[in-house]
Amino acid sequence: MSQATRILTALIFGLILGIAAVAFARDAAMAATAVTQPIGEAWLHGLQMVIVPLVVGLLVKGVGATADAARAGRIAFRGIVLFVVILWTTTLMSAAVMPLLLKLWPMPEAWSAALRSALTSTKPLGTPPGLSAFFDTIVPTNIVAAASADAYLPLTVFTIVFAFAITQLPPEPRKLLTDLFSALVDAMLVIIGWVLKLAPIGIFALAYGVGARTGAAAFGALIHYIVIVSSIGFIVLLAAYPVGMVGGRVGLARFARAVAPAQAVAISTQSSLATLPAMLKGSRELGASEATAGIVLPIAVAIFRATSPAMNLAVALYVAHWLGVPIGPGQLAAGVATAAITTMGSVSLPGTISFFASVAPVSIAMGVPIEALGLLVAVETIPDLFRTVGNVTMDVAVTTTVSARSGDANSEGLSDEAAHAE
Fold first, then answer.
1. Do 369 and 126 contact (CB within 8 A), yes or no?
2. Which of 122, 216, 399, 412 has its CA at a distance of 20 to 30 angstroms from the CA of residue 45?
């Protein structure tokens, strides 16, 4: 049984057992939550304790990899610039569209009330800034204090500056520091691996308490979450088509045919890396030269994920809606900035680890409790399909765009032929 299956099984079994126990012996069932709740929270704390060093280490590695890629030449630089623009654009889209989706299809108030009573045993983390305070706190005065207070946005800003400073060092000290942070990341991943082995226990304990307190509303809320958050990934997926058509100068039908095999592989594997050969083939069919595709796509797979910041912000906004946490302009700005900036740091992680490493900093920066993430990670498999397919489609669109705008002879020739054919 895979780890994802074990986690999902623990979630379902915990919810069902909690619901059934309350139905048969309510007092005893609720008394049991005094034992299960601390167990679940201890497991969440085990994940939370490694987030600060993990995010710092991953950002240093991500910035270093981006800088190295940019030095590779004009084509690599163009690809990186286009990906950064897309990441920020999709994040802002999520900030605008997610509240609208929740307004058009809100969670029933009875479900929200029940879930708030089951999931608000911990206070919101961090200090959500107002709009003016947002600009006062974005640059930290004390990086140690920022880290100890879980102030992820100023911590992220400092780490980005520090990482770019490392790229300016001579080769020997640059390699020394890069290797140090790489080893730090590896050590944190070992710890997370140990914690995730206990995930079925922790998630079962959390799910039991939620099931006992909310009943069947928990299942409805999880389905609601899957549909709403997956919708953001689907919007990013759809946005890749006009990017490929306009930027790559190809028709809709041709782009759709070329990218379809890569999308099929993405659905079956849920891995952008495994989809790389199919993406290379699709990009070549769209006119990208072998040289351009061979540069842009590996960078895309190694450093960027087009859907990640938008969907990570969507998860945090959903949890805030779920738990009734008000999000003002300052909190939203902090969430957008944190989601967009930390994306580079988590792209090399397995899905379960990436979920916590990416969403927790965004949630904490916005003052949203992260307790619900312990349940949501169990159903992340379905939204992750939209993440992977959206990433793959956008990767091909960007590669085609960079090729067409770089004046590749192969791209120009095939685009002209396609224009006559279509």
1. no
2. 216
